[in-house]
Structure formats: C-alpha cells, structure tokens
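Key idea: predict the complex, not the pieces.
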Amino acid sequence: MPRALRPLSPDLQIYRPQLTSVLSITHRITGIALSAGALLLVGWLAIAASGPDDYARLHALLGTGFGLTAMLVWTFALFYHLCNGIRHLFWDAGRGFELKAIYASGWAVLGASIALTAAAWILSSRV
Amino acid sequence: MEEADNLSSPAPVQDLGSAREGAKQWWMQRMTAVALIPLTLWLAASLLRHVADDYATLAAWLRTPLAAVLMVLLLIALCYHMALGLKVIVEDYVHVERVKVAAVAVIHVLSVALAVAGIFATLRVALTG
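Result:
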C-alpha cells in the first residue's frame, strides 16, 4: 500500500478516550504550551533587563483579563507537566506499570495539578 | 513499490537507520527533567513571591547570586529539555524527511538562541542592575 494511504494509529474515530490516553496527550500539549511559556519567560527577563518603564508596562499587561487567563493556563500546564513528568520518571525506572497503579497515579497527577494551581493562585492573590 | 519497503534492498541500510544518539538523548531528557523538578518549583515559588514587586525589589532579588545562578541553570535545563521534547513531537507527526530534518534543525537553533537570550538578560540585571 502506498505510504500516504496506510492507516495510522490511533484511529481517533474508533478509540474510546481513556484516562491513560487523555493524560498522555495532555502531557504533550502542556509541553508545547510550556515551550511557548519559555519564550514568554525569556521575554519577561529581557524586559526586566531593559528597565523599570518597560517592566511597568508588562506588569500592566499581565494584570488584564487576557494576561491573567494566560497566567492561569500557564500555571496549570506547569504543574500538570511537572506532576505527570514525575509519573513518567517512575515508569522510566520500571516502577508502577500495574494497571491499578497507572490509574491511581493518573488520578493523583490530575488532583495534584489542580490543587497546586489553586494554591498558587490563592497565594498570589494575597500578595 | 518504494525501494525502502523491500527489506532485501540496501536502501534501508544506506540512507535510513538510526542517528546513533538515541540512547544519549533519552538519558539527557531524563536528566534535564530531574534537574527541572527543583528548578521549576523554585521558579514557581519565586514568581509567587515577587509577582507584585516593584521594579527595584525584583531587580534586587534577581541580582542575588543564588537567584541569578538558579535562573541561568533553569534556562539551560529548560531549553535543552524543550528542544528534545519538541524534536520527538516533530518526529512523531512529520514524515516528509526534508521537512522533518529542517524542523528539528530550527528547533535546535531556536532553543540555543532562547537560552542565550535568557542568560544574557539575567546577567544584565544581575551584573549591572
């Protein structure tokens, strides 16, 4: 069969979403989001280096609805990728492959990510 | 039928095959990941503490040796980890060889550029402020 016409896995119209596959693609998506975040981090450093006036303008931008939403999404992406990344490192060490452990750790990652994001936001609003 | 589909032809051995750096890249992805655990937590905690700071306070913090050094380490680990991760994504979805090679090359170049730009900005604040 010509290469272009071979069916590719996963067959998204057929497969039922499961915790395993959803967390896996989310890990990839948050990785991409954090790559964009790395650009913004360097941008923030560059503006900090260019002086107080530019920095004040950036600060104002971050305080807008758009800025705050972006920060919230970035915070969640950060904590999710961190927690699921640790889950991955356990797998790399050969641990936690039993199906029950995979599901338990998966729910733990989801819970921890949400909890850490919420904690960060509560703490930052008190500053 | 393409030559590469015929396993008895020399094409798979001559043109295709591994880049021979796979094991090292796998290991470096894990090494940078482990380094990024404490560095990321430090970044998150630092940003939280300094989110409402005025410029002078923020610059004073970034000028401390610990903050400057950790930020530089973070940038190196982050850009390395990012480059490897994005490379894997490109390899998963791009199957036209020329486009794939070009995309991975661009990722490497941009990652280095990002790290250098970030380190420069950090040192600029830390050394001149």
